[in-house]
Amino acid sequence: MADAFSSLSRRGLFHAGVALGTAALLPGAAQAAEAAPAAGTLSLKGKTIAISVAGTDHFFDLKAYQAQVETVKELGGTPIGLDAGRSDKALVSQLQTLVTQKPDAVIQTLGTLTVVDPWLKKLRQAGIPVFSVDLPSANVINTATSDNFSLGAQLALQLVSDINGRGNIVAFNGFSGVPVCEIRYTQLRTVLKYYPEAKIIQPELRDVIPNTVQDAYAQITALLAKYPEPGSIAAIWSAWDIPQLGATQALIAAGRTEIRTYGVDGTPEVLALVKDPKAPAGAVAAQQPSVIGRTAVLNVARYFAGETNLPSQTFVPAIIANKANAGEVQRQLGQA
Amino acid sequence: MPPRAVPDRVAIERGSKPLFQRALLRRTGVRFGGERSSALTVLAAPDLAAPPVSRIARAIRVTAGLRGAGGLLLILAVLAVFAVRAPSFLDPANLGLILSQSAVLGILSLGLTLVLITGGTDVIAGGIDLSLAGTLGLSAAVFAGLNQAGFGDPACAAAALGTGLAVGLVNAGAILLLRIPPLLATLAVMNICAGLELVVTENSTIPAASPLIDALGGTGPLDIPVLGYLLLALALGLAALLRVTPLGLRAEAVGGHPAAARAAGIATGRYVAGSYIASGLLGGVAGIVSVAFLNGATGGSSEMLLPVVATAFLGFMVSRRFVPTITGTLLATLFLGSLTNGFQLLHVSTYWVNGIEGALILAVVGAGRVRGRAA
């Protein structure tokens, strides 16, 4: 995807604002979404960069991973692609092996913080610079990520606006150990604090990996049987959009399309459901996984070029896609 | 039960009594599918039994030795390639890593090996413990849950081991008292464990920190992680128990020919029950090890099931007699661990590794069988 842009347009877009340190969310008609920032004179020639990822079975992880591998190659470096396949044991093993393998740098994408952080620390202590994607930690030099504080608040505001500030909300909260999910959830709670008539149904649901879609479908179908009255549930929220996909499909199957679903990532299937006026997908916060992945590698190259004062987080803009602008967002992300 | 004669290794191997001849033939029939017919022919003509059986037994021993050698040679060749292409592969620290990364899989596979030895290796009717991965997940969850609730290490460890023990007892009860085939009984218990694990963890990660976790997660002498030493100690301890005491031979007799073993005075039920209980306990140990490895209890333990079964069966290929053994299982575990580690050192993308690993396992098994037929 990144290669579809010439380096000239990349540079232009880079200067247009998809860059380091911008915490801004793009407004509805944003420019330059999912366009790759330019590498400029940066180089990773002769460097071996380990690209360690929790899994590549979802749209976000896969795009972020592919962009990292491609960018390392583009800059003349050697990527070591390590996909833990959603197994924490495999993830810890591959990070452990990296301590003895001593690559020039490690980029860790996602993961449960308590599981990976001890090993990120060991890598750091072994003198290996550690960077991350979507994983803020004291042991990484820089994490490339969406601004989950802003997008979490924006998504929550879209939700309460769509339900007029009242009603029961179903929340999937199975990954509170993943920092970015925790931030989005905390933002939802913060917004809801000011809408006392909107309540999260207890107990909250737990989304799972794998079989996320089927599991969310089954859980929502069961919950709809428990709340058969139209209007008894106003919205369904999840910290990413694969549970949202299952939930939306369950609502369509049960004919309960008065309920709206909300999530984060911008997986193409979900974005298409948000665009579909008949589907009950209310909104999705669309991220730019390829740009995030590329940004992480560029930061590694900047570090090797002597920029040691990198910010701890590099924010890549995200867009809230709702019923009104989903088609436009699809075009910007190259999904149309 | 009054004390009765117990078979010794010499008696079984020489086939000096008709009973043990039958036991041997039955076992060879089961384990060497192709030779079953010749074994049955001998059974049908008991007059010829004594001299030919010893010749057959010798031939089988030679064949089995070669089969093991074929697999072993290929394993050594793969490791040699790693050592040449990635010199850091043989660093003591890296070998220690392989040991510690293999600890959870290895301990579970040791448990399954005990069940296979005692229950027999027939996939459908023999011994099998599918609940091991579930036991791992549940006991890890119990340990981490109690740790979070403020309990000390002794209570957490006792509860985790107790969980494993309880699972083993349920398996043994279902198989021996209710007469449910092990495949189905342990499958059901696996589901119970997975369900209870979800109840304890609510499907989220439970972090854990304690002196025991720190100690297990630390590094011992020679830069080798403590978990690596633990795996070696457990394997060597079990191997010694089975080789030095009569337990091993009797367990093998129970697995090979239960009727013959019973007739020889072995309380077969106790051995079978014991194997499931030991397997459950090892599942509990693996739970604690997993908490130490991951600094908490995380989901996904069910994914260990197939690797555990594959490891235990791959262990046959590197055993001299083509049977489940502790050392065979340990070697198979370390081989699989070396593959993952070696490919990462060679910068091979993970996307390739699963396929290559599968092909190599097939090759190791195949090498064993081809060598066996050629002999």
Q: What are its keywords?
A:
heterodimer; A: 336 residues; alpha/beta; Rossmann fold; 2 domains; 6-stranded parallel β-sheet; 6-stranded mixed β-sheet; 11 helices; 12 strands; disordered N terminus; B: 375 residues; mainly alpha; ABC transporter involved in vitamin B12 uptake, BtuC; two-stranded antiparallel ribbon; 2 strands; 75% helix; 1% strand; globular
Biggest β-sheet: strands ordered side by side in the sheet of chain B: 1-2
Global structural class of chain A: alpha/beta
How far is the first residue's CA from the last residue's CA of chain A? 14 Å
Q: What is the CATH architecture descriptor of chain B?
A: Orthogonal Bundle
How would you describe this structure to a colleague?
The complex is a heterodimer of chains A (336) and B (375). Chain A has 336 residues and is an alpha/beta fold. Helix content of chain A is 42%, strand content 17%. In chain A, the strands form two sheets. A six-stranded parallel sheet of chain A has the order 2-1-3-4-5-11, sandwiched between helices. In chain A, strands 7-6-8-9-10-12 form a six-stranded mixed sheet, with helices on both faces. In chain A, helix 3 (88-101) packs parallel to helix 4, helix 5 crosses helix 6 and helix 9 packs antiparallel against helix 11 (326-332). Chain A is elongated and about 65 Å long. Residues 1-33 of chain A have low confidence and may be disordered. Chain B has one domain (12-374): ABC transporter involved in vitamin B12 uptake, BtuC (Orthogonal Bundle). In chain B, strands 1-2 form a two-stranded antiparallel ribbon. Chain B is an all-alpha fold. In chain B, helix 5 (92-101) crosses helix 16 (326-345) and helix 6 packs parallel to helix 11. Chain B has helices at residues 9-14, 18-31, 36-44, 50-85, 92-101, 103-119, 132-148, 153-177, 182-201, 211-217, 226-244, 247-256, 258-263, 268-294, 305-317, 326-345, 350-374, and strands at residues 206-207, 296-297. Chain B has 17 helices and two strands. The chains are: A alpha/beta (336), B mainly alpha (375). At the A-B interface, strand 2, helix 3 and helix 4 of A face helix 5, helix 14 and helix 16 of B.
